[in-house]
Design brief:
The chain is of the alpha+beta class. The chain has a single domain, classed as Nucleoside diphosphate kinase-like domain (Alpha-Beta Plaits, 2-Layer Sandwich), CATH 3.30.70.141. 40% of the residues lie in helices and 17% in strands. The protein is built from seven helices and four strands. A four-stranded antiparallel sheet has the order 2-3-1-4. The chain is globular, with a radius of gyration of 14 Å. The structure holds inosine-5'-diphosphate (IDP) and magnesium ion. Inosine-5'-diphosphate (IDP) binds next to α4.
């Protein structure tokens, strides 16, 4: 397994608010190389599968509604220690608790609509990347 990669989504709120360019600039300026990237939209079934681990949570229906309401930017990113360093770059799930300068502190509105996804492990990075991209779309 490639362990120097992570997977991200710039979520519908980030796309709607026009923050895509600024967020990608911050990601690349932080040393991540773009391996794959596209504008896409998840179906309800996609979001239910992608977030299946959260299916018993009270916020699950809201999460599926949010993640499917408009396009997202999906990407695979490469850097030494990519998973951990990207989680540091995006900040805490709740932007009110996110460190200064993090993407969620800068661009997220709430714990639900928090602008960006970052994989939480090398294993999930590989699963999530393969969920959105074929091998031919990875560079
Ligand atoms: P993470 O995105 O920081 O890994 P998770 O706990 O894995 O956070 O939750 C996945 C996503 O579900 C969050 O990014 C957020 O969009 C949403 N979410 C998490 N907790 C809540 C909540 O308490 N209310 C509403 N939405 C939530
Ligand atoms: Mg998570």
């Amino acid at each position: 397994m490639v362990t120097n990669r992570t997977f991200t989504m710039l979520k519908p709120d980030a796309v709607e608010k026009g923050h895509v360019g600024a967020i990608i600039e911050k990601i690349t300026a932080s040393g991540f190389r773009i391996v794959a990237m596209k504008l896409t939209q998840m179906t309800k079934a996609d979001a239910q599968e992608f977030y299946a681990i959260h299916k018993e949570r009270p916020f699950f229906p809201e999460l599926v509604e949010y993640m499917t309401r408009g396009p997202i930017v999906a990407a695979i990113l490469e850097k030494d220690n990519a998973v951990e360093d990207f989680r540091t770059l995006i900040g805490a799930t709740n932007p009110a608790e996110a460190a200064e300068g993090t993407i969620r502190k800068l661009y997220a509105a709430s714990i639900g609509e928090n602008a960006v996804h970052g994989s939480d492990s090398d294993e999930n990075a590989a699963i999530e990347g393969a969920f959105h991209f074929s091998g031919r779309e990875m560079f």
